[in-house]
Amino acid sequence: xxxxxxxxxxxxxxxxxxxxxxxxxxxxxxxxxxxxxxxxxxxxxxxxxxxxxxxxxxxxxxxxxxxxxxxxxxxxxxxxxxxxxxxxxxxxxxxxxxxxxxxxxxxxxxxxxxxxxxxxxxxxxxxxxxxxxxxxxxxxxxxxxxxxxxxxxxxxxxxxxxxxxxxxxxxxxxxxxxxxxxxxxxxxxxxxxxxxxxxxxxxxxxxxxxxxxxxxxxxxxxxxxxxxxxxxxxxxxxxxxxxxxxxxxxxxxxxxxxxxxxxxxxxxxxxxxxxxxxxxxxxxxxxxxxxxxxxxxxxxxxxxxxxxxxxxxxxxxxxxxxx
Amino acid sequence: xxxxxxxxxxxxxxxxxxxxxxxxxxxxxxxxxxxxxxxxxxxxxxxxxxxxxxxxxxxxxxxxxxxxxxxxxxxxxxxxxxxxxxxxxxxxxxxxxxxxxxxxxxxxxxxxxxxxxxxxxxxxxxxxxxxxxxxxxxxxxxxxxxxxxxxxxxxxxxxxxxxxxxxxxxxxxxxxxxxxxxxxxxxxxxxxxxxxxxxxxxxxxxxxxxxxxxxxxxxxxxxxxxxxxxxxxxxxxxxxxxxxxxxxxxxxxxxxx
Lengths: 323, 257
Description:
heterodimer; A: alpha/beta; Rossmann fold; Alpha-Beta Plaits; 2 domains; 4-stranded antiparallel β-sheet; disordered N terminus; B: 257 residues; mainly alpha; 10 helices
């Protein structure tokens, strides 16, 4: 991803390499007796795309809103572009773009009218017709906000977040409710922001989105940081690949495991469906197929599967439904 | 033109932000049908209706239209300065608009200035229209330029007081509660706030209370100056006192979300 950066963006990044765009340190926020954010610490490198992922109620929005200056931390501290988001709010506001999780417009305002209004509060706003076209807001430009679809409201919010040419944008669930085309359009926009030197912090429920867009992913659960790293680091972390195949039900799994390298595991989650976990390499595959040949088993649909970020996420945060 | 996302942050000049906010809010106020009903249809009905229905309501001595018009002008300031602002601000809060504007370069003070500016723009339209209708019905304001300046002063003081009260209500109550309460207060003040019917038509015991109400002070002040009298400092003082109290409480209690 990083190789495609224009030179100007790279210089900008080198110049700010020592100072992160966002620093969250031991952050604590409570609602009554509930700790929504519990000693959270992470950094966002300038010029990067950072995804904050976690189940509902994990504290993502609370953390974003603290960085945006809406909430006073109950403990710890937050620095945004080297400044305090509340004390230095007046200086930060022109430099930081925000997409709220929902709302953020008059109900009777027309889409493009709202965008123009936000633009009029900035010194060097983007070209409105070009931005409208880019985000596909042309057809609903005269529609009142309350009559826009959820996806249109999201795209308008995104346009409002970037129209002032900020250095840093906080996007809270930028693709929630978008159709696949709009989702890809948003991904392209985030990548273009990044290559123009804009730092992007986004939250998402979609792991493929985080995997695709983010330089760094922070997984939070119950207000705590449970994992951090690049998508590939997270996917490699403690990760075995798996081999799946179909064969007659009730194979002798003890015999099969004995034929495989040390530390391998063989499960049969459904009758006739087999999953082999362990250090999956060509030797394991060879040993597996050799055992099958020796035992007259035809392994159908044999596939080596890579762990996805979604698997990592579910392993870290559990598979049970959240209230 | 191509899009260049390379950061180039900056705020627009404060005055142009205030002007943009005022224009935007005025446009939205004028676009909203219910607000327009409150802002124009009711005052015009009151003016024309009570002018025609002679025996219905005793307005006391003097030409009926001359007594009626200053009260209707005060009613317009009440409906736009208080009721419209309370309702629209309540929904701005609920829809996250105030929260979102809090993340733009627009300072809170400029947001308030823009709001007041929008109210003054709308009031200028309304007051001009009502005056034109009243003149058509035979209204003969007295006092000349002096009276006109006094009217402007009283309208500004009344608007400040009403907007302060509107923000106090909208900043603390839920949007639907604000909607109901603002309309109720409007009706109560219309009926018993000394707006349309001069004080001396009310029982003597309630007259001192009425004089202390912002509606009473504004309406009676307008009736005096449009009858050729000098502006009553007592009325101005009462309006300013309401402004200070409401603004102070609103500043302390207002919740942006």
